[in-house]
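sry for the spam today, last one i promise. C-alpha coordinates for design, 168 residues
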Protein backbone atom coordinates (compact mmCIF):
# COMPACT_ATOMS: atom_id res chain seq x y z
CA UNK A 1 0.00 0.00 0.00
CA UNK A 2 2.19 2.82 -1.26
CA UNK A 3 1.22 6.39 -0.66
CA UNK A 4 1.96 7.53 -4.19
CA UNK A 5 1.05 4.32 -6.00
CA UNK A 6 4.13 4.60 -8.23
CA UNK A 7 5.68 1.65 -10.01
CA UNK A 8 9.34 2.64 -9.65
CA UNK A 9 11.89 -0.07 -9.48
CA UNK A 10 14.39 -0.10 -6.69
CA UNK A 11 17.76 -1.69 -7.33
CA UNK A 12 20.57 -2.55 -4.98
CA UNK A 13 24.13 -2.64 -6.26
CA UNK A 14 27.39 -3.30 -4.46
CA UNK A 15 30.65 -1.52 -5.24
CA UNK A 16 33.81 -3.36 -6.23
CA UNK A 17 34.89 -4.06 -2.66
CA UNK A 18 31.33 -4.86 -1.53
CA UNK A 19 31.69 -2.31 1.27
CA UNK A 20 29.05 0.10 -0.02
CA UNK A 21 25.55 -0.63 -1.28
CA UNK A 22 24.12 1.73 -3.87
CA UNK A 23 20.34 2.05 -3.85
CA UNK A 24 18.85 3.52 -7.00
CA UNK A 25 15.29 4.81 -7.48
CA UNK A 26 14.45 5.47 -3.82
CA UNK A 27 13.70 8.81 -2.21
CA UNK A 28 14.69 8.99 1.40
CA UNK A 29 13.62 11.57 3.93
CA UNK A 30 16.16 13.44 6.02
CA UNK A 31 15.21 11.44 9.08
CA UNK A 32 15.92 8.15 7.26
CA UNK A 33 19.29 9.41 6.02
CA UNK A 34 20.21 10.63 9.52
CA UNK A 35 19.35 7.24 11.01
CA UNK A 36 21.43 5.52 8.38
CA UNK A 37 24.40 7.72 9.19
CA UNK A 38 24.33 6.70 12.84
CA UNK A 39 27.32 4.56 13.75
CA UNK A 40 26.54 0.87 13.77
CA UNK A 41 26.63 -1.08 16.98
CA UNK A 42 29.97 -2.81 17.74
CA UNK A 43 28.42 -6.21 17.19
CA UNK A 44 27.73 -5.43 13.55
CA UNK A 45 31.22 -4.27 12.76
CA UNK A 46 32.77 -7.39 14.21
CA UNK A 47 30.88 -9.72 11.95
CA UNK A 48 33.37 -8.83 9.32
CA UNK A 49 31.87 -9.83 6.02
CA UNK A 50 30.75 -7.18 3.56
CA UNK A 51 27.92 -9.38 2.30
CA UNK A 52 26.35 -9.57 5.75
CA UNK A 53 26.55 -5.78 6.09
CA UNK A 54 25.07 -5.47 2.63
CA UNK A 55 22.10 -7.68 3.56
CA UNK A 56 21.63 -5.86 6.85
CA UNK A 57 21.74 -2.53 5.03
CA UNK A 58 19.16 -3.73 2.52
CA UNK A 59 16.96 -4.91 5.37
CA UNK A 60 17.42 -1.64 7.24
CA UNK A 61 16.59 0.41 4.14
CA UNK A 62 13.48 -1.68 3.51
CA UNK A 63 12.37 -1.14 7.13
CA UNK A 64 12.99 2.60 6.85
CA UNK A 65 11.06 2.71 3.60
CA UNK A 66 8.16 0.86 5.21
CA UNK A 67 8.21 3.29 8.15
CA UNK A 68 8.32 6.26 5.79
CA UNK A 69 5.37 4.88 3.77
CA UNK A 70 3.42 4.26 6.97
CA UNK A 71 4.12 7.83 8.11
CA UNK A 72 2.98 9.25 4.74
CA UNK A 73 -0.12 7.06 4.80
CA UNK A 74 -0.90 8.21 8.33
CA UNK A 75 -0.50 11.86 7.33
CA UNK A 76 -2.69 11.32 4.28
CA UNK A 77 -5.34 9.69 6.47
CA UNK A 78 -5.17 12.63 8.88
CA UNK A 79 -5.65 15.06 5.99
CA UNK A 80 -8.58 13.03 4.63
CA UNK A 81 -10.13 12.87 8.09
CA UNK A 82 -9.82 16.63 8.50
CA UNK A 83 -11.37 17.17 5.07
CA UNK A 84 -14.19 14.78 5.88
CA UNK A 85 -14.76 16.52 9.22
CA UNK A 86 -14.91 19.89 7.46
CA UNK A 87 -17.32 18.45 4.89
CA UNK A 88 -19.55 16.95 7.60
CA UNK A 89 -19.44 20.22 9.56
CA UNK A 90 -20.40 22.19 6.43
CA UNK A 91 -23.19 19.77 5.54
CA UNK A 92 -24.46 19.84 9.12
CA UNK A 93 -24.43 23.64 9.03
CA UNK A 94 -26.36 23.63 5.75
CA UNK A 95 -28.85 21.16 7.20
CA UNK A 96 -29.34 23.31 10.30
CA UNK A 97 -29.83 26.39 8.13
CA UNK A 98 -32.44 24.61 5.98
CA UNK A 99 -34.18 23.37 9.13
CA UNK A 100 -34.17 26.90 10.60
CA UNK A 101 -35.62 28.34 7.38
CA UNK A 102 -38.26 25.61 7.26
CA UNK A 103 -39.30 26.14 10.87
CA UNK A 104 -39.46 29.92 10.30
CA UNK A 105 -41.70 29.33 7.30
CA UNK A 106 -43.98 27.05 9.33
CA UNK A 107 -44.08 29.59 12.14
CA UNK A 108 -44.86 32.41 9.70
CA UNK A 109 -47.68 30.36 8.13
CA UNK A 110 -49.09 29.54 11.59
CA UNK A 111 -48.97 33.23 12.59
CA UNK A 112 -50.75 34.21 9.36
CA UNK A 113 -53.42 31.55 9.93
CA UNK A 114 -53.95 32.82 13.48
CA UNK A 115 -54.18 36.41 12.28
CA UNK A 116 -56.72 35.41 9.62
CA UNK A 117 -58.77 33.45 12.18
CA UNK A 118 -58.62 36.38 14.62
CA UNK A 119 -59.73 38.81 11.89
CA UNK A 120 -62.58 36.47 10.93
CA UNK A 121 -63.70 36.26 14.57
CA UNK A 122 -63.52 40.06 14.88
CA UNK A 123 -65.65 40.52 11.77
CA UNK A 124 -68.14 37.92 13.00
CA UNK A 125 -68.37 39.73 16.36
CA UNK A 126 -68.99 43.03 14.57
CA UNK A 127 -71.69 41.41 12.42
CA UNK A 128 -73.40 39.99 15.52
CA UNK A 129 -73.16 43.38 17.25
CA UNK A 130 -74.86 45.07 14.27
CA UNK A 131 -77.56 42.41 14.23
CA UNK A 132 -78.09 42.88 17.97
CA UNK A 133 -78.37 46.66 17.56
CA UNK A 134 -80.84 46.18 14.73
CA UNK A 135 -82.98 43.83 16.87
CA UNK A 136 -82.79 46.31 19.73
CA UNK A 137 -84.03 49.12 17.45
CA UNK A 138 -86.86 46.88 16.22
CA UNK A 139 -87.83 46.03 19.79
CA UNK A 140 -87.83 49.71 20.72
CA UNK A 141 -90.03 50.47 17.72
CA UNK A 142 -92.39 47.68 18.72
CA UNK A 143 -92.37 48.89 22.31
CA UNK A 144 -93.18 52.44 21.22
CA UNK A 145 -95.92 51.16 18.88
CA UNK A 146 -97.46 48.99 21.60
CA UNK A 147 -97.33 51.84 24.12
CA UNK A 148 -99.01 54.07 21.59
CA UNK A 149 -101.69 51.44 20.93
CA UNK A 150 -102.18 50.92 24.65
CA UNK A 151 -102.58 54.66 25.16
CA UNK A 152 -105.19 54.79 22.38
CA UNK A 153 -107.06 51.86 23.86
CA UNK A 154 -107.03 53.43 27.30
CA UNK A 155 -108.23 56.66 25.81
CA UNK A 156 -111.04 54.87 24.01
CA UNK A 157 -111.97 52.92 27.11
CA UNK A 158 -112.00 56.13 29.11
CA UNK A 159 -114.00 57.85 26.42
CA UNK A 160 -116.40 54.97 26.15
CA UNK A 161 -116.90 54.54 29.87
CA UNK A 162 -116.77 58.13 30.90
CA UNK A 163 -120.42 58.93 29.89
CA UNK A 164 -121.57 56.00 31.97
CA UNK A 165 -119.56 57.02 34.81
CA UNK A 166 -121.17 60.40 34.98
CA UNK A 167 -124.62 58.88 35.07
CA UNK A 168 -123.98 56.79 38.08
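last one done:
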Amino acid sequence: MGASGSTRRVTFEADENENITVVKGVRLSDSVIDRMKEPSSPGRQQRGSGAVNNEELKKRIAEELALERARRDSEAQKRRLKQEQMYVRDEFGKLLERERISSNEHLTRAILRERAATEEERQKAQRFARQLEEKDRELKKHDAYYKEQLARLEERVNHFFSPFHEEF
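Helices lie at 30-37, 42-45, 50-167. ok im logging off now
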